[in-house]
Amino acid sequence: MTTTETLLERGAPAPARPPARTRRERPTLTSVITWVAAGCFVLVVLAVLSSVLVQSFATTWRGGWWPDGFTATWYGRAWTATGMSRALANTFQAGIAVVVICLLAGVPAGYLLARRNFPGRSVVMLLMLLPIILPPMTYAVQLAALMYRVGLGGTMTAVVLVNLVPTLPLVVLIMVPFVEQISPSVENAARVFGADNLRLFTRVLIPLLLPGMLAAGILVLVRTLGAFELTFFVSSAQSQTLVVALFGAISDPGGVPISLTAAMAVTYMLVAVLGLAISLRYVTPSQAIRQRHR
Predict the structure, then answer these.
(1) pLDDT digits (tens, 9 = 90+) for 172-201
(2) What residues form the membrane-spanning segments (predicted)?
């Protein structure tokens, strides 16, 4: 009789079996191609960014693999000689204003589209898609002409208004499915307990819609920071954003040094990455969704 059978007859538990060895799956051809393609893409992007970063510190670069020397004076010249400080302040002002206006107007509009059925609702949804999917150049000239006709051309107000055209429909379309996920019985229960429309919206719906609002706000901020065509046609030297100032430096017929434009490009990239990192650090949509379902 074996030891295991003896232990079973005496009522003792049988010894645990050693865990089976897990077999490593062999990589398939599709996975190898996917990882190689992703790796090549990442390497190309890092190479381009690295070349711009090195160029921003280069004294002269005669076309070899490495510059002749390094200096940080290009960043100081970019800050003082190209108006980058004013453009940076305008970028933050326009971005914050567009995000706030889009959320204040887009969330109620998304709620109405999700809760109300009316003739032509699908047409309205289709029209909201047009400013998002169409290239901004197709309507930038007409918007610029309208801004100058009403006397707003070259002002920060015009920069904010034209950037609302593609971003406000984006917020509305994002908020519609989030509102549809909320059961109408929640709103009915809140009204039974005496909540008016203002309390219902601020104390019941806003906490439930917070993940969608955060996601929409981040997308609007990123899109506003990178908006060029709409801002270019309505801005002036006092209201231009950083991306427009960068384009102006590159297209200067006087011949701006390439290291100076590279320093401006690095600053623009840092601002965009910093804004996105701060947004995702404090208003991560995935964390909000997990907190909502706890």
Answers:
(1) 998 988 888 888 888 888 888 777 778 888
(2) 32-58, 92-114, 126-148, 160-179, 200-222, 262-284
Q: Do residues 118 and 268 lie in contact, with contact meaning Cβ atoms separated by under 8 Å?
A: no
Contact 59, 263 (CB under 8 A): no
- Residue among 130, 221, 127, 216 nearest 176 (CA): 216
| Domain residue spans of the chain | 30-71, 83-292
Strand partners, 70: 58
pTM of the model: 0.74
For the record, the structure tokens of 32 come out as 């190898």
Query: Are 218 and 285 spatial neighbours (Cβ–Cβ below 8 Å)?
Result: yes
**Ramachandran class of 31: left when φ > 0, alpha when ψ lies in -120 to 50, beta otherwise:** alpha
**Tokens 């994002």 — which residue?**
174
| Cβ-based neighbour number of residue 113 at 10 Å | 20
One-letter amino acid for residue 36 of the chain: V
- HSE, CB side, 13 Å, CA atoms: give it for residue 294: 6
Q: What is the architecture, at CATH level 2, of domain 83-292?
A: Orthogonal Bundle (1.10)
Tell the residue number behind the tokens 């909502």, with chain if given: 292
* Residues in the chain, total: 294
Integer Cα distance of 38 and 59 in angstroms = 34
